[in-house]
Structure prediction request, 329 residues.
Amino acid sequence: MDLQKVLILGLLLLGVCFGCQQKESNEQEKVIFKMEGNPLVRHVSAADPDVHVWDNVVWMYCSQDHQRQEGDKGNYDHMDGYHAFSSTDMIHWTDHGEVLHTKDIPWANGGWLFAPGAAHKNEKYYIYFPVRNKEKKWKVGVAVGDAPQGPFEVMEKPLKWLDSIDPMCFIDDDGQAYLYNNNNVVAKLKPNMTELAEKPRKIEYAPEEIVKDTLRHCREGTYMHKKDGIYYYSYTNWKNPEIQGYYAMGSSPYGPFEWKGAMAPVPNDGAQDHHSIIEFKGQWYYFYHIGGHEFKPEGWNGYRRIACYEKLYYNEDGTIQMIKHTKGN
Prediction:
């Protein structure tokens, strides 16, 4: 065998070995764990749960808190790295590791990767993410993948017209996708799911007395789900010392909505009630996060929020019963 053939064979073998090592590395990133009572996730920070059911599998996408560093102005300066979790029974879970980071976003400033919103359409998977750009202004970007755990490719430019946090994607029964964003706005997405089809419009979610009430109006974390033909628009008011989750009901994804009031108390350990609502195998569930103080590693400086879930129940008239927070072992 001549030298050239030996070199080619060596390079091929090296590529195969590298591929094996890369596969092993990805597998090692997975963490298998069991729900042992709230909080659901204990081994890593897992905040802002955005949860979906696709092909009979529950998928949860979470943002991640990191420790405060010298010079930080708050607890969220270094939020970065989304994790994807999955379960087929709500008890046994897999953490698929980090699926998106600001190092993957060329136009991001680094850090400040806040709550994600995910979607599945066109045999593709989408993550809508709020992050500060190089000019330190909030923008919403899109990442696209062929599998729910990625890998995800980030679109070159952020979406037009959106300049706030907490994007949430809702896909109606007819296949039309809508993107909700803070400041109570919503817009249709184009069929490609990576562009808005219209300028965002303001949502009428409550009477003026509620909208002007600093303890009951919408501050962040807007969410949309549908049950029995009714659209439920919900949100968080993190300044309220007793109640944080509120909702309204309507007959259209755009609204207007009839405000119904409270549905969730202040989370344990302090945190914002940033929620998701899903139906899985005939039972409705309410995901949120807590402060997770007792699960912080020793010496941890700052927040370390982690995801939880509770069963959710409706009354006969479609209104939502108050969520009861539980705490496990």
